[in-house]
Amino acid sequence: MNLSIRTLNIIFSISLLLLASAFIYSYLNIQGLRSANHWVNHTNKVIISLESIYSDIKNAESGVRGYALTKDASYLEQQDQSRTNIKNQLILLDSLLADNPEQHIYIDTLQKTVNDRFFLFNGLINLTNNNADQAEVLPLMQKGKASTEHIYNLVKKMKNNEGILLLQRNEKAEALDKTTPITIVFSGIFGFMVLVISYYFILADLKQRRKIANEVKIKNTLLEYAQQITQMGTFEYNVFTNTLFWSNEMYNIFELDRSVIPEINFIDSLIKEESEITHNRRKKNFQPGASYSDELKIRTVNGNEKVLISNGYVVNEENGLVVHGAIIDITPLKKAELTAREQQELMRVAKEKAESASQFKTRFLSNMSHEIRTPINAILGFTAILSKQELTEQQKKLLKNISISGELLLKLIGNILDISKIEEGKVIIESKSFHLKESIRSVLSPFQHSASEKGLQFHLIIDKSIPDYLLGDFPRISQVLVNLIGNALKFTSHGNITVSVLLTKKQDGLSFVEFVINDTGIGIQANKQDEIFESFTQANESISVKYGGSGLGLSIVQEVVHLMGGNIQVQSPAHYNERGKGYGSKFFFTLPFKLGEKGADPQAKKTAVQPFPRVLHILVADDNEMNRTLATYTLQSLGCTFEIVENGLQAIQKAAANTYDIILMDMQMPVCDGLQATRQIRLNKNTTPIVGLTANVFQEDINRCLDAGMDGHLGKPYTEEDLYHIIDKWVFKNEKNIAASVPSFSNYEFIEKLSKNDPVIFREMLEMFLNQNAQLLKIIHTAINAEDLETLSFNVHQYKSCARMLNIEKQISLIKQIEEKIEARVSLETIRTDIMQLIETGALVSKEIEQKLLIV
């Protein structure tokens, strides 16, 4: 179609007008889209700022709490930093929300609430500095919690408002984002139709450029966000032209204004190292195809020190060597590492202090226990000796009070030591076979007498279905029962006490046994039933005044029961009278047990004190005069002879010069202590039994005694019975072991009947046999050597009567063989072999009889 110039001008003008209109419309859409994106970013900044404020409040709260716990001033720096951050964020919010009256009202409220919260922080810090108690701190902490919750609610409300705005702005942005491309495409197509083919390529090119520019812009924006988040900036450095280009984040890293043109020499001036070192490193790194990674320390123009990682690779391009790289700010990471190391060091120091304090406490308790037990040993020992004398009733009563007071003090020391062991986790629950029913009856027998003296009925109920032998730690079970029943006796003035031991179930090879202690005493208030298991705590203050006690017993009971796999509970009142008034208490717990084996019961009763089979000669080493005097009276009472020395050196000298049946050795003595003395005695090849007789009763002390070479340990204070049994155990146990190692040839039934089990007659008959055995064997040996068959035959026959007294079957059989050979006139060499065997067996029989005499 041929168009006139005028028509062409009109069409062109209309096209230009339409294009201009389309351009304007597109421009407005794009501006609207930019505006929408701006407000979306604006909303995100507000939300981030709000979250930062709440996060800083929590950080400040954490800092103040840390200071309150440790009084470490470094925690206050965390609070100060948070205060500064919040102030900056509030200023930012105020500017961001200046055009939003509703949100602006919340800013004012938020600022006031934040100020109130920091006021409460300061109050808590002041209370901490003044060492205020919990009653003063708790109300302030509750107010602080409410204030933090108020801040949280304000932040949440403002975030919700911003969320609504964000939703609206996102919708607007999405709408614009949809319409803008359509408008552009429509305008382009219409323009192409009007301006014919010649304009098509131009518009297509423009469209393509616009699209690429938009994509690049988006990618650059995303890249900038990523660099801000990771604190990483990128750069490009042309070595030949010495020109440097970098991303915006590099300005943040180096704390430079964006108007500053980056120069490599300026950057070098910020690095904290000699310029020559920097030059040499760069010369090494900037090689074609090379890559590098360096850690740099810089000081910015603002004076801040930072640690950076610089990574790069070198490319040989047309215009020279070009370094493409990235710089990462790792200052926060380094600070975190430093803080972690500092925390580890603080923890190490705290651990060392705690261990040192624990060791000090252990030494203190050990020393105090030793110093208290030493005089108590004398007090209780002399009291026991005096109680055997003829005394008036008043004197007996006074002695009993002294004894009870000493026992109570000893029990208190024991409880304190138990609490210490429990706190340190040093209580070991053993697993040994014991007869539960017999053991419980034995332990509870004294309580029946005590209850009877108070006019109380004492009932013991043991379930018959409980297995006889169980595996467990009965001494600890006994400790628990004695404590609970002792309390029941203490707090019950009338009525009864019932102890029940019941089998509740059997499961997976375990027997679950319930222990119940029920009394009709004063009971325990409901609000105090949890507190009574705390150390040094009783149901009320009047209890300790009226009934006495340290308040440690139930605390120990609870921990011991827990260690044995149970959980103690209390029920009070346990009974009700006709008027509905409650009284009494019930303590109960269940323990799991494996089945035990029948054997020597560790809880078996010890034999009563009786004269030793022979007079024992004993060495006593003790530096305390009172304890030496007590040992004198006690050993005299046991019928022993003894020598007493005052230190370990004297003990070593005495043990080397004399023979003793046993040595009783104190641990702490001047000149040379008991451990050193024991080691030296053992080095001297002396095997005399040594028992540590000491007020050091910790398990560590017992182990030290045994490690030094002692055979046993007896803690002070001790009774005459304790000393008797420890001597009997270590003196006669050894002799019985020696006797047991000798083969048994003899049968003592015949002479036991003849002596009617009288030990004196029995001993005399054994001694008579011993003499005859030696004389006859000597004659037989002489006769065989002299080849005197007549004398040999006569004395062999005499020896047969002697052997029949103890029914020594081997000797009787040999004698029969010898007599038959003599009668048959066999060669003397054949008879000699039997005679020598007879003599050897006779020697063993003599040794057996000698050992028997030691224990008769």
UniProtKB/TrEMBL annotation:
Phosphohistidine: residues carrying this PTM: 797
GO terms of molecular function: ATP binding; phosphorelay sensor kinase activity
Keywords associated with the record: ATP-binding, Cell membrane, Kinase, Membrane, Nucleotide-binding, Phosphoprotein, Transferase, Transmembrane, Transmembrane helix, Two-component regulatory system
A Pfam short name: HisKA
The Histidine kinase domain, residue ranges: 367-595
Entry's localization field: Cell membrane
Class of this enzyme: transferase
Membrane topology listed for this record: Multi-pass membrane protein
EC number(s) from the headed UniProt entry: 2.7.13.3
Reactions that this protein is recorded to catalyse: ATP + protein L-histidine = ADP + protein N-phospho-L-histidine
UniProt modified residues of type 4-aspartylphosphate: 666
Annotated ranges, domain Response regulatory: 617-731
Domain HPt positions: 758-853
Record has Membrane as a keyword: yes
SMART domains, alphabetized: HATPase_c, HisKA, REC
Chain segments annotated as transmembrane: 7-28, 182-202
A single GO cellular-component term on record: plasma membrane
Protein name: histidine kinase
Source organism: Cytophaga hutchinsonii (strain ATCC 33406 / DSM 1761 / CIP 103989 / NBRC 15051 / NCIMB 9469 / D465)
Native organism taxonomy: Bacteria, Pseudomonadati, Bacteroidota, Cytophagia, Cytophagales
